[in-house]
Design a protein that fits this description.
Layout: E1 13-15, H1 23-36, E2 47-54, E3 59-63, H2 76-87, E4 93-101, H3 115-128, E5 133-137, E6 143-146, H4 149-152
Parallel strand pairs: 4-5
Antiparallel strand pairs: 1-6, 2-3, 2-4, 5-6
This protein binds tetrahydrodeoxyuridine.
Length: about 160
């Protein structure tokens, strides 16, 4: 019996601020920040904003949407993705920007999406046959850019098994 050592290389880019980003990346991050104001987060007080860029040029945003029955809380990323696929069926999503705000303390570093959102993001990529660039930024500060949601969740559950 043999066992083999395996390893993954995770690649992403980090920018210290927005200056080197493309115009569309900047616009999308700004849209994600605008979406923070639409968060309904009376329980956690933690706001998340997401914005998607589609191939038709549309920008679709979403914010977290909480509920007194806590497990019903909806994440910003999935709010935005569900809105995009239902409003623009068949349109490819090329970028997703995600940002967060904690009114109690400034978040100056990128916050990565939760595991459930990663799984959904990967399936969106598979369904549309193309990756989404992922842009992550706190309320301010460094920006992480990843080429695909699969970078965040390499061992995703693959629906093609079903
Ligand atoms: N949240 C998101 O909207 N996206 C994530 O990826 C992680 C968490 C929300 C859910 C809840 O409303 C609040 O952030 C605190 O967990």
């Amino acid at each position: 019996m043999e066992n083999k050592q395996q390893q993954l290389e995770v690649k992403w880019e980090t920018f210290t601020d927005e200056t080197a980003l493309s115009a569309s990346q900047k616009t999308l991050l700004a849209a994600a920040k605008t979406a923070l104001d639409k968060a309904y987060a009376p329980y956690s007080k933690f706001q998340v904003g997401a914005a998607l860029l589609l191939t038709n040029g549309a920008i679709v945003s979403g914010a977290n949407f909480e509920n007194a029955a806590y497990p019903m809380c909806l994440c910003a990323e999935r709010m935005a993705l569900a809105t995009a696929v239902s409003s623009y069926p068949g349109e490819r999503i090329t970028h997703i920007a995600i940002t967060v705000r904690n009114p109690a303390k400034p978040v100056n570093q990128p916050a990565a999406p939760c595991g459930a959102c990663r799984q959904v993001m990967v399936e969106v990529e598979q369904r549309q046959g193309g990756d989404m660039e992922v842009l992550l930024q706190g309320e301010q500060g460094a920006i992480m850019v990843l080429k695909s949601a699969k970078v965040l969740l390499p061992f995703y559950f693959d629906g093609s098994f079903l």
